[in-house]
Amino acid sequence: MSFRKFWRYGLHLFLFLLTLVTTTLAGTEWMHDKLFFFSKRGFNIQGWMSKEEVFQGLAFSVSFLGVLTVHEFGHYLTARFYRIRVTLPYYIPMFFGITNSIGTMGAFIKIKERIFSRKEFFDVGIAGPLAGLVVALPLLFYGYTHLPPPEHIFSIHPEYQKYGLDYAAYVYQNTENQLYLGKSLLTLFFEKFVADPALLPPKYELIHYPFILAGYLSLFFTALNLLPIGQLDGGHVLYGLLGYKRFNQIAPFIFVLFIGYAGLGIITPKLNLISDYWKWITYVFYLLLVFQKIVPEKPQVLLLTAGVIGFQLAFSYVFPGIDGYNGWLVFGLILSRMLGVHHPPCPDESPLSKGRKVLGWIAMLFFVLCFSPQPFVLE
């Protein structure tokens, strides 16, 4: 094996092993409600995790990285089947130790040549999410059917023990700054029809259960990838279903709806135009920035920005107190400025077979089932 090839494969392996370490540490932080570098009283070497706690974090890291790896190799193996030059997955480790994280920013493969047909775009795009779901759904089923006894919460929060199993009546009187996982249709199904209600912890504690957290994040990233915009997996799938012209007519409309929902609650009829001018200016600038890439002319950008703000003001007037999820605005910026909302053409625009069309709409259904309007909620 040449040095260049050894270095290339070694880099993929190194990033995977480093991400395994960072996700294990992150999982341990969530499971034990502590940070690597901090105890409850601030910076303190006594606040560092024990070896036993770190090993317990493997339950999260192996589960989550397992789904992520199967997802990426779904893309990789399908690309190789079509003899498309493609890299092995690049894993992106991320760990802070001073604030909670999930230990990674995900993984990606790099396609090194042009894809020839709609069918190839479709097959490579859909293979990852479907392969990941084959692992993620059994993982969630296991997590919800193997919940520990209610007393397990005292190993995470020893301070709850003085209240006994009636702790919820006392510790949640003030839930300000409490983080909890949002709901998707699939997680609602597991909670209502799969989990034992006597074992299901309060929503604020589910984030400390490794298999549920790993499964939830797997659904979250699956929904993110299946968003039918640009060159995301869902964009490849919808492009395969509709073709170049129809997709690039519909994708900008979906993107505008996405941004319109995400920004709900920022601009409301109660917002003072003078004292809150900075919020108006910042948000208008953001909309101009993201819409600049999806319509060709400046007057259209201005008109679209005014239309979205008008919709959000009207919606807030009719339904006061209902907000979107502002965290999606960050992803919207990445989509618009980096990944793109439109899809490039390919030489062969032949339509898909009936079987692939059925599979494509099933994938779009899974996007709806996995998508959480508010994935991570901080009260």
TrEMBL record:
The chain crosses the membrane at residues 90-109, 121-144, 207-229, 250-271, 277-294, 301-319, 358-377. GO terms for cellular component: membrane. It is a multi-pass membrane protein. One of its GO terms (biological process) is proteolysis. Its main location: membrane. GO terms for molecular function: peptidase activity. InterPro entries: EGY1-like, Peptidase_M50. Pfam families: Peptidase_M50 (PF02163). Keywords: Hydrolase, Membrane, Protease, Transit peptide, Transmembrane, Transmembrane helix. It is found in: Membrane. Residues 59-249 form the Peptidase M50 domain. Its cofactor is Zn(2+). Belongs to the peptidase M50B family. This is Site-2 protease family protein. The lineage of its organism: Bacteria, Pseudomonadati, Bacteroidota, Cytophagia, Cytophagales.
